[in-house]
Amino acid sequence: MSMITNAMSGLNAANVAMTVAGQNVANAAVDGYSRQAASFATSNSSLGGVYVSSVDRIVDAFLNDDIWRTQSDLSYYQSKQTYLGYIEEIVGTDSLNFNDAVTKITNAFNAAASTPDSDAYRQQVISSSKAMLQDLAQMDGALSGQLDKLSLEMTNLALNTTSSAKQIADVNKSIVQAQANQQPSAELKDKREQLIKELSAQIGIAVTDRADGSLDISTLSGAPLVIGTSPATVSVSGTVVATQYNGQTFALNEHVGGKFGGLISADLQVIKPTVEKLNELVKSFADDVNNALSQGFDLNGDAGIALFTYNAANPLSTININPEMSVDKLALTGGEYDASGNWIAAGGPGDNGNIANIITAIQSNDDGFSVLVGDLGIASKQNQNSATTSDVLHNNAVLARDSRSGVNLDEEAANLMHFQQMYSANAKVITTADQVFNTLLSMF
Predict the structure, then answer these.
(1) What is the DSSP string of 275-332?
(2) Which tens digits make up the pLDDT trace of 96-114?
(3) What pTM value is reported for the model?
(4) Are residues 129 and 30 located together in one domain of the fold?
(5) 211 with 127, same domain?
(6) Roughly what angle, to the nearest 10 degrees, separates helices 98-114 and 355-363?
């Protein structure tokens, strides 16, 4: 009977192998499915036949790590570029060019030099200044809108990241239970890997295996996201991001990677520095013009007053025309010291002695805005190049994983033929054994 027993074990093993191959073929189009393979082993008893020792997922942890890492990098650069490209466009647009607005104000002062007591020329100075303020207000509104959008996007991303962490923790629990009960867990592990891929797009991750089959996941800075079957939560306050786990709070910065890292970087390296630089430019320009005007005298012979007012805490958002300013109070007349050392008007209403000082003061601000626009353009180009490189690396990582873990229909077709032949051969052994047994019976 050992021949029949051997053949039966071969039939069973071949049947399992064909079932595994069929499972692979059925799931060939399922995203994230890892092909499975049956492993055979000889029975421990003498001439005891064969059995399927295990059905294993064909995976490579290093290839999965590459996918998660490159996915995180790609999301970082893409999310950052969304804001970097927009800020570059707003600041660099011709209609909002700060240098052009300053040039128009300079031209207005130059025009007034020919007839400094002309109300029309003086009004042109004020009008061109108001036009500049409208451009700055539009730029400030766009930047403020980006900060609001950034905060909202971070808040939504925090909800998604918290949800992903919880789902992974739940799958961890299911895998631990399945393995403890010696039940299949391949599909659960496929699902977990897909969830981790989604999480890696949201935030950079480090993954550690546990002996019970679960995984621990942390951020690149070490903040916990999933510990076994317990998830962390992610919260956002304004544009400040943190994770909370077991009563502890861990702050995240731009080095955390993933979409979160890109958004934090957009906040800290793009939007806020741009606002800060524009504040410096606006303050410097307003101060220079105001100081130059304070050295001159108006049509009434009075000392010059400021053309611009602003709140020092936020010049870009608050700069305005001095409400006390009028065409006759523009201090275009030059000054000089009298015999007593007092600073007095050097001439009458037709004097233009202070205009040259004003123009010189304005021209001292020429380079700052151009440098800002140039720096944004360079940063945007570098970020786009990094995003392109990350996309190529991610695609390569996915292809490498698919070549190892993906289903090859030609290979599975060959496996099916092989195991079908194995099944048929073992069935033939059973038939032969039956014939031999019947022959022996007929001899008596």
Answers:
(1) HHHHHHHHHHHHHHHHHHHHTSB-TTSPBP--SEE--TT-HHHH-EE-TT--GGG---
(2) 888 899 999 999 999 999 8
(3) 0.87
(4) no
(5) yes
(6) 170
